[in-house]
Amino acid sequence: MNKYNQLGSVRYNQLGRIKYNSRGAREVKPLFNRLAQARPVILDQNRRRLAILENADNIILEQEINGIDQVTFTLPWKDEKRKYLVNENLVQLVNSIYIIRRVSVKRSGLSPAEIEVYAEALWYDLQFAEPVEHARWESATPEVIMKDILDGTGWRVGKVTITRERTLELEAGFTNRLKALYELPSLFGGELHFNTDTMTVDFTEPVGRKSGAAIAYSKNLEEVEAIYDTEELVTKLYLYGKNNMSIADANDGVPYLTDFSFTDKVRVRVTKDERFTNPYHLKERGEEALKVLARPRSSYVLRAADLSALSGMSHEEFFLGDEVLVYDKELGINVRTRIVSWKYNVIQPWNTELQLESKQPSLSDLLTGIQEGAEFLYSEDAVERDEMLNLHVFNYLMNSRGDDGFNYWTNDGWELDAENGYSGNASFRATAQPGVKKSLRQTIYPAHRDSYSLSLRVATENLRVGNGRVGVYVKFKYQDGTEEEPIWIPLSEDE
C-alpha cells in the first residue's frame, strides 16, 4: 500500500480557513502544452495566476501509477519572483496542479543562494478530508464506491471503465478518503488517475496508450542490465477471506488454485485478505494473481531520453502509463511494455529515469503480486527499485525514420519507401544512376554531451560502385567557427 505523510506529524489546513477542494474551484488554462522544457506557473490559493518561473531549474517530476505525484525545483535567490513561493500556494505544471508544501533556502560554499521547493499533487489533501462515513458496500461497482468516498470533498468521479462488482468494508469514522480510494486498485485491479485541473478521479483498466517512442541500446551507452528471476514463483495458491473463508465453495470443494504451465514443481503460498466475503470474488482475484506468479518475472529499469522537444519528432514523446518499445538486439530484448513510474527531468528531458512493467504474459494482463504475511492482495509494479537498465534513445536526427516524408531533410534525388522500414514503417531509398550525384542531408545541434555515436541501418541490392562512391559524410562544426576534418564512412567493400 502507498502511504502518505507516514510520520503523522505534519498537518495542513488544520484551521479549515483554506479550502482547496471546493466545488467551485476555477479551471486555469495551461500556458505550456508540452511537459518537456515547460516552466512552473505559480497560482494563489484561489487559482489566480501570479508568476511564470522562467528561471526555475532542476525541475523533477516524480510519479508512479497508483502512487506518488510530486514535483521539486529550484529558483535563484536573487529572482524577484521568489516572493510568490509561499507555502500552500499552487504550482501549475502544464495541466497539473500541485500545492507548495516545503520551501527552503540553501547556499553551498561560494555558490549563489537558491530556493528549493517541494510540492505535492492537489489530491494529496484528500487524506485530510473528513473520514469516510459510508464504509460498507455489498457487491458494488467501483463507480458506486467512488461516489460515496468523494462525496462532500469537492472531487467528482470521472471516467470509470471497470464494472466488476466487489464487497468492501472499511472502518467507519477512522478511514481517510485517500486511503479508501487506494483500496480500489488492489481490490478491482485497475488504476487511479487524478485530474487536478478538473478535480475528477478516473479509474480504468491498466492498458496504456501505444506511444510511437522506441528506446534502443546503442554503442554510446555505458551499462545495461536486465533481470529475469523465479524467486517469487508460485504454482499452488491457498486463498482465504474474512473469518477464514476459503474459496472451496466456489472451486469444487478445493481451497487452492494451481498453475503448472511453467514448471511441475510445487511451490506453495498461503494468503489472506479480510476484505473478501464472497468466495467467487476471491477466486477470481486469485486466478488473476496466479497468472503472473506462476511464470518467471522480467524486470527493467532504464534511463531514457524524451527527444520530442529536442528533435521535433512528436512520435518520440512518451508519458506515464504509455506503452513503449524497448529494443536491444544483443541481449534479445524486443518488447512492448508500459512505463509504470518515472523521474521526469523537465529541463533536461534526455535525462529521465523510467521504470517498466514486466512483460508477462501480455500487456493487457493485470500484474498482481502476493506479499507473504500481508493482510491483503495488492497490485505491484513488478519492478525492483535497485535494478537499472541504462539506456538512451540514440537518434538525434529529426524525422530519421521517414515517418514525416522529407521534412527536416535536404533531398537531392532520394525517394521515400513507405513499406520497407526498420524501426518504423518507412525508410529512404536511392537508385544509382551513372554520373548523377544523389544526397540526403541534415544539420543537427546536439550540444549537451561530450561524445556521440553514429548508427544507421543500410540495405543494398546489386551494388556496384565502379568510379563512384556510396557512404556517409560527417562534418563537425563548432560555435567558434572551427571545423574538424570531414569523415567519410564507406558503405561498400569496393572503396
UniProtKB/TrEMBL annotation:
Domain called Tail spike: residue spans: 123-370
Prophage endopeptidase tail N-terminal domain location: 40-121
Gene3D superfamilies from the UniProt entry: Galactose-binding domain-like
Pfam families tied to this protein: Prophage_tail, Prophage_tailD1
InterPro entries tied to this protein: Phage_tail_spike_N, Prophage_tail_N, Tail_dom
NCBIfam families from the UniProt entry: put_anti_recept
Protein name: BH3515 protein
Source organism of this protein record: Halalkalibacterium halodurans (strain ATCC BAA-125 / DSM 18197 / FERM 7344 / JCM 9153 / C-125)
Higher taxonomy: Bacteria, Bacillati, Bacillota, Bacilli, Bacillales
